[in-house]
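Worked Example 4.2. Read the sequence first, then its structure tokens.
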Amino acid sequence: MQDNNFPKIYSYAEMVSRSISFGHYFLLFNCALSIFIGTAYTFSALNNDSFISFIYLILTNIGHMSFLTFIVFLIVLFPLAFIGNFRYYRIISVIIMCIYHMLLLIDAKLYLYVKAHLSLGVLNIVISDLDFDTGLNYNFLFIALPIIIALVIFFAKLATKSLYRFKIKKYAFISAILITSSFITSHLIHIWADADNYDEITALRSTYPIHYPMTARSFLRSHGFIAQNKTLNDDVQKVKYPLNSLKLNQNITSFNVLHIMLENISYQDLLEPKPQLTKISAMMQNFESFYMPYTSSLDNLFASGYGLPILYRKTILQENITPIVVEAMQKLEYGKKLFLVKDKYDFEQKLSNSPSFVQINTSTNDIQSLDKLKLDLQNFDSSRKFAFYAILSDLNSVKNNNDYQNKLTNLENKILDIILQLKAIDCYDNTLIIISSISGNNKYDDNKLKFKRNLQQGVLLIKWPFANAIASSNNALASSFDLSPTIAFNALGVINKSTDFSVGNDLKNANFDEKQMLIIDGNDLIIANKSFATIYTNDGGFIVENTQGSYRAIPKLETLIRAMRDLNRFKE
């Protein structure tokens, strides 16, 4: 008997009965498809060698993905069976299950890339932030969706035929027993693991959608941040840097670069007890909310040069990967020199063990370094562009506050001398001048806080090429990570996106944005803005700090997802 005749020859009760029977078989076939999609979560989450973890994931996949499909049937398809029209019920069932499997595919793709499931907060990130350059695009749906539709229609036909086959009931019963046993066993394993603090399993409980609520702690566990005797910067084995090959705009003029980096100076040193560096500030843009992500000079030097967190430093230096800024300078045949104090604070030794991207010139003190820099400017080949860097470390050896101010004044006068030299050789206008801190003044170190705001708020002064020499200020959140893209875009003509080679942004276009945040990796993960900082410790705890102290709060998972996406962008 053809389906089109059902309404004519069957009563309402019989139509409902047939719809419910069809729904049960249709549910069984869709459970199989859900389990297949669920394997994406299984193999994405499996990051340890524990056999019992693998068994737990397999059982959870079978039990939980089937349970999700059963819930859709129970809440949506079962009530619809009472419409009393078998043909319409099958059509509606196919449409609903196609939508359900499509959402599963989108959620699985999202979990593969950012280890998070669909929610309003995550959906906001997908719509606003995650573009087609992050790998998180959904072009695969053009292929997957027709396959899903074809399979679900095929399942509907199989379920209809199953109404007439009595043998299928035996297999349906066995499948139901298998699914139920898997569901119960997986939860029993989790109960044991939770009671026994077996982290290899408890860390996996948010792997599947709507299994356990995803929290900040479980999200960090899924990224491998929370683990015994493990810190965030132990994770990266392979790095893809830059994400896309370097591209230069050949139609614009490149500019010289002069970058002077100061140790042991914080933003507060410009204000107390009397204003400092006032003569230099009068001709430059002052970034008042500039923060160094780390307390170590070498860490901040890496962040400035590469625009990357120290998470990647070990692998990058081992593989001798050139910073994109230096790669651009090499293509443009820049003369590159670094001036620093010989054997002071271990800089020369540590830099000599790093890839040699610039010619290193050493001196006995900062004044001598700046004199050498000035002399090299005077004798430099005017047909080439130059990129001169200086690391000034004399402020580390001050005896008292007066000595500190005197040395800072002397350094300022020497820097002004160099600026005059730039004007003398007609290079002032076409030079990007940056003066920045690479370590803060230890007198502002607050040992009570994880994020030492007053210590790490540093000095950043920039004179843009061909800009009017008028003092200005910018209160946008800035960091050492921003210096690499700033030099790349404003001096070298790089046309790649900043996301190709940095976690920072171009400071020429820096504006206040409430979503801006500073992401600091290391022993703890710190997400800071101008008002407060959220600290996620590698033992799973988290606190919020401001200048008054710390307090407990519920962290925003959306913010954490943004942060981990940026941190993990360059992992292969």
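Now turn to a second chain, presented in exactly the same format:
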Amino acid sequence: MYRTHNCGELTVSDIGKKVELAGWVFHKRDLGAMIFIDLRDRYGITQLVFEKSLYEQSKTDIGREYVISVSGNVVERSNKNFKIPTGEIEIIVDSYHILNPSLPPPFTLENETDGGEELRMKYRYLDIRRNIIKKNIELRHNLAREVRNYLSDNGFWEIETPCLIKSTPEGARDFVVPSRTNPGKFYALPQSPQTFKQLLMIAGCDRYFQIVRCFRDEDLRADRQPEFTQIDCEMSFVTQNDVINMFEGLIRDIFIKIKGFDTGKFQKFSYDEAMNCYGTDKPDLRFEMKLTEITEKVKGKNFKVFDDAEYIAGISAKNCASYSRKQIDELVDFVKKPQIGASGLIYIKYENINNFKSSIDKYFTKDELQNICDEINSTVGDLIFIMAGEKEKTQKALGELRLEMGNRLQLRNNNTFVPLWVTDFPLLEWNETDKRFYAKHHPFTSPQDISVLKNDPAKAKANAYDLVINGIEIGGGSIRIHDKNIQKQMFEILGFSEEEANKQFGFLINAFEYGAPPHGGIAFGFDRLCAILGGSESIRDYIAFPKNNAGRDLMIESPAEISQQQLDELGICIKSNFK
């Protein structure tokens, strides 16, 4: 027997017991006549005491991160550590065994480590030993357990769908897999199980879920990985409200069980309301600072920036009128970044009633500036920012500035969670380069009004919904098209010929011939939900073995070249100049 107890288990109630423990040597302290070792495993830390005959032997035998087992007696500690569950006891060791020695780790395995991210990813199996990462992995496990419990209790079946499917043209790039037994043909890894979950509804499974791996070949960032996990769900004979109520219940249950936080009933915004008030379809509601349109209030003053603009709006930052010119210039540089794309930023410092400092002083009187401040609901001491230009671009830029001010003013508290549903999205997006429509969500999303889709596709609204928490899109779904004729019409609007549609999605169109029920569902970003619950901006710390920003696994050195024999078996030739 390696152990009778784990390293996070023993308390004062165990004093006097003979026990055996096993784990890793975390800290070692030599006090001259005795050695203290903190023994660590997944469950916690227990202090060991080596004295008398074992002192000299353990002094040279045992090193940091060695795997050892010990036998000894539980005694009460004289210098108690109430920060850990085992802090009132220690083990007087009477024998030990070195189960495996260890090289010195390349970085400290503390919560605050000296290892950079690349180094930690190369030795990820060591990084996971750090308590902070273990806690993240545990949170992920607990989240998966609560999801399964809630959905199982509500009549959902967990059903696996294939990982080797066919490539489809919508969405991000597919990862493709050559087929040796079907020369010249390729599988694709699924970006989501979308068509399969619809087929399961046609199959009569009624309620399906899956905690499923998905794959997208796209540029990476903190909240993206080439392989990621979704909570994928579908229901038959439901309306949008049925789906929203079911999964609002799931998210509330998760936050109560894991965080002890009751979110209360979720707010609901239309897409247009979200854009008009917050400049984004995933607004962060932890703070106010709404956008206010002032287009008609400020035109006609011979200020070309305003007079030529389609849309003009502002936000008011509370108690920021004391901002220096340097601070304002930093914000001007911020909105001019390529990813935001604004051409400039106008400000008004509301210092006192009818007393302002502004970048538009020579175009507007004090009374007119007062009217602008009143329109934006500003009060004395506020700093007003105004942008002008094309409507959607200006809304998005002002929305980014709003978030930046939220960060600077520390209004985005990670211990507060404000979820909301965003509904009534546009069904389609027009691509000026390709001169064609693309689906805003995916081509199986049902329109709210069939006649609008037929007569004016650009104005069609989707029967779709997103769940947003603290400015992050956590999940999205829709009521699906279940009528073959509407689905064919959708494909035509998206530019598919009948032949192309049948080639890509013929199996689904054919399935509609056999009694497809009305159905809808949602998919949640499981990794993103972990990061929100854990208070982190990156999903990488909640994935056991993540990829870096280049999509590489530094630990196993993947992706990697394959042998010529494998290439020959697959009938693949690598171009000599291919990069």
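Notes for the reader: The mean pLDDT is 94. Residues 508 and 551 are 32 Å apart (CA to CA).
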